[in-house]
Amino acid sequence: MQTVKLPEDIPFELACLASCGVATGFGAAVNGGVKPGDVVLVLGLGGVGANAVQGARHAGADHVIVIDPVAYKQERAADFGATEAYASIPDAQQRIDHLTNGQGVDVAIITVGRVDGDIIGDAFRAVGKSGTCVLVSVGQAEAGISISPQDFTNFAKHFQGVMYGNCNPTADIPKLLQMYKDGTLKLDELVTRRYSLDEINEAVADMHAGRNIRGVVVHEH
Question: Cα Rg for the chain, rounded, in angstroms?
């Protein structure tokens, strides 16, 4: 556990977002190797993925491609800086090939709700030479991953896991909240709906159904 002093002029219902999803997603991009001019693939546009998109654009990516099977998430992707959105990697493959001359993306960031070996393998194969696949999502510990060893040697690909976006809460949460105050980080747009405490079951159902980017439970004292 760790505590961070918050600015008094930011509501708790927005500041709470920075404690996990914002820092994790944003950090996965900026600390995961995204560079100016990159083509970035983000798998999953939830409360973490939306911030991976923001982080990728902040780091200077020219193109950020979102993959999410939920139509609502595809529609919202541009709000956070995505340049395009598709339901699957095969649907996006022609665009990826066009942007990268068939070489593959520079960075793929996996932020789906629950990951499996197939998703990891697909994301890793979408990465081009010397590119990086960043794993943020969690899944079953025994899940196998189908990756060719030749991708590591012949193509010098990188596979990187991140915990909490490799952020330092004491330093990075105040920075992220200052970015929000400066207008360079979106927090209000992340909150699709606010719930009262007695609506908690509905909030969980909406999360599983993909109806929200982020739902916030507001407890009235």
Answer: 17
